[in-house]
Automatic annotation (TrEMBL):
Record domain PEP-utilising enzyme mobile: where: 431-512
UniProt source species: Sabulicella glaciei
Transmembrane segments: none
Cofactor(s), by name: Mg(2+)
Family: Belongs to the PEP-utilizing enzyme family.
Keywords associated with the record: ATP-binding, Kinase, Magnesium, Metal-binding, Nucleotide-binding, Pyruvate, Transferase
Record-level Gene Ontology MF annotations: pyruvate, phosphate dikinase activity
Physiological role: Catalyzes the reversible phosphorylation of pyruvate and phosphate.
InterPro entries: ATP_grasp_subdomain_1, PEP-util_enz_mobile_dom, PEP_util_AS, PEP_util_C, PEP_util_CS, Phosphohistidine_dom_sf, PPDK_AMP/ATP-bd, Pyruvate_phosphate_dikinase
Reactions accelerated catalytically: pyruvate + phosphate + ATP = phosphoenolpyruvate + AMP + diphosphate + H(+)
SUPFAM superfamilies linked: Glutathione synthetase ATP-binding domain-like, Phosphoenolpyruvate/pyruvate domain, Phosphohistidine domain
Broad class of enzyme this protein falls into: transferase
Protein name: Pyruvate, phosphate dikinase
Amino acid sequence: TQWVYSFGAGHNEGRADMRNLLGGKGANLAEMASIGLPVPPGFTITTEVCTHFYANGKQYPAALKADVQAALVRVEEAVGLRFGDAAKPLLVSVRSGARVSMPGMMDTVLNLGLNDTTVEGLSAASGDARFAWDSYRRFIQMYGSVVLGVDHHRFEEIIEEVKLSRGVVEDTALSATDWREVAQGYQEMVAEVTGAPFPQDPEAQLWGAIGAVFESWMNQRAITYRRLNDIPAEWGTAVNVQAMVFGNMGEDCATGVCFTRDPSTGEDIFYGEYLVNAQGEDVVAGIRTPQPMSAARAKPGEKPMEQVMPEAYAELVRVREVLEKHYKDMQDIEFTVQQNKLYMLQTRNGKRTAAASLKIAVDMAREGLIDEREAVTRVHPASLDQLLHPTLDPKAPRKTLSKGLPASPGAACGAVVFSADEAEARAQKGESVILVRIETSPEDIHGMHAARGILTTRGGMTSHAAVVARGMGRPCVAGAGSITVDYSAQALMAGGNIIRAGETITLDGATGEVFIGPVAMIEPQLSGDFATLMEWADKVRRMRVRANAETPLDAETARKFGAEGIGLCRTEHMFFDPERIGAVRQMIVSETEEGRRTALAKLLPFQRDDFTALFRIMAGLPVTIRLLDPPLHEFLPHGEEEIAELAASLGVDALSMQRRASDLAEANPMLGHRGCRLGITFPEIYEMQARAIFEAAVAVAKETGKAPVPEIMIPLVMVKKELEITRAQVEKVAQEVFSETGTTIEYMVGTMIELPRAALTADKIAESADFFSFGTNDLTQTTFGLSRDDAGKFLPHYVERNILPKDPFVSIDPEGVGALVEIACEKGRGVKNGLKLGICGEHGGDPASVQFCETVGLDYVSCSPYRVPVARLAAAQAAL
Ligand code: ADP
Ligand code: MG
Ligand code: MG
């Protein structure tokens, strides 16, 4: 086995695609070196050594010592220095590097190889004593804290003491002698804390650092990070040992980190920071203020690298082009300039916001770096969500309440609520709410989902609230510490303002700002790059994308987002309107068919208008209308008082009304008198709905010349007979309306597959169905035997403990629910070739589920209007 791979100085044993073996950092250092970029030479100890280390009681492979020695000699020869040499010492950095970048791993140790002797050699060779002692004290500090575990405060105390005694504030004001004193103080302190002298032998230093990297793979921080991110412990980390280059040798030296394009907007501009006369993490450590890269981005008074170091900058610009051409993606790079010569120390694909990822994908396709199909794969469908949400109108007046962390983008405005249950209850009534919590926990998920936005007063960018909100695409401001929340008083306080439950606030998840009252918003930009990428996605996708919509507003939004029809119109949502609910209730409480028909006749014109509006908006596109589905009890008022009121309004006595209401109450309504069971016991309900649909369709056909294609969907079918009966009712009404109006239109009758029995007998059911639509919400409930309304209490716990890999209501469960879908598709199409198949329900907008739908060959997915672009992109990626 080869345990060590060299890179640089013309000897590159690794490549970018060897990241599993060499880790991301090592693989890309080798790749950069092999395409001719200036990379200081070094070598990578493979991840297999890490695996071996843990499999063998923390022993290295026998050959490792010799292999490292040989690789080190190669580096020595390449740079003309020797490790531990008193006159011309080679110094190295020791850097960890797993397959994926992983916080929790050992920090880099720089300047390794320095000791009381070599520091003098470095001083003499460079002619710069200050630089040599600065490097040495840095090394003792890094090695001391990272490898020997000495608290970093102990080092800072010593620097502070020396600065105080010299009367200086800035590190830069310290001289060679000062740094020598710091280095000596460090060594004494380390010896005192660890009980052993600071290691002077470079060889021992090297193995100490290598060991520390491998040990850090199993430290608690790394283990936790791996668990949260599904990274297997078997992967292991690699160790990179690399010749040092120095950004701290004077004014013609620098170090920096940057992105080849702006990672927040995607703009094609060099974006990042650098510091003159600095080393390693100085740029991010905040000791001095880093300066911008490009002159175009510099504010007055700033010293952009483009002006300060034009030669090195020009070289960096060239490197940037080489890298982007080579990797065909935006890169996040680390570099150092030593005496005006540029060295590359790291590159990787850069993390970016959704907006940047969209712009970069489209720009790169236009530049010819990638093709359109590749561009389509570059944007994560779920991230589009962020771009589709409204943002605050920059010109709108506002009154600031507080500021927290910009934890999840988008703006939201709504009434303050302090509990998840309250959020859910109010949202169900159609209210916009902002969930305000000190912090959130998995029990709050349902409320976070129901809320328009989330505000917490504690926790950071990776707090529960932040992570979950980003995942859900909900705007979130986290850790707004100036706000005090008083749950018992149902109020929040900040800077002398008191906001009570029910009062409106506005969040800007992109800036972290919180405002009192509503702030005007602007709709998202759906033109430009977004439209372009969607167009490319539409070219490659096979499945159609429809929306779940009942109201004209939803239908219009859906069209704007590119929906190609309605996949689910839930007619019961139309019954709650105050104008109609009276007639609905009258129908429900009538004990005779005649009574019900009288009430239904009042509803007919309303329903007809509903469908007319939808057909007009959908202009000839298919519209799937589900006939009444929920148990009738849901429409009745609750509580004695309200029931008495209803009784009075209908002119019946309160007692019999009370009895009727309790007759209708069910122990388990989800599996009770609902779906087509209603249509079978009260055929007049479905007849009225069918009439409304056909009359509306005929009217719109006449009015616009574009005949809509209603797809009438019968819910909760468990046996074929149910579909036969209800289908016959619908067909009868169709014939009546066609002969009354003298116009015939095309239509379909199909069913929702949402019960396991229906899926398993889909061949029988298909004989009476023109289409199937998988109602995977109910199918998930009935397959798992898991009530969606009650699962919130334990499901998060299941997901957290990995008893279930994902919430099956969010992402389709391929093994169980998916298997039923697959069976139903096969059986259905076995009987009826070309049987139209679709999915409605939450899963239609979930990228992983959309991928599943592609595999089983569905014709379309249907999802909520705002998710339509997500589904379009996901469908395209699934087809590629
Ligand atoms: P991280 O993974 O935390 O970014 P790195 O291993 O990339 O850690 O090292 C951090 C920084 O240390 C680099 O960005 C670079 O500035 C500096 N560094 C690492 N190796 C060298 C080297 N051989 N010469 C000079 N500076 C180095
Ligand atoms: Mg680090
Ligand atoms: Mg780095």
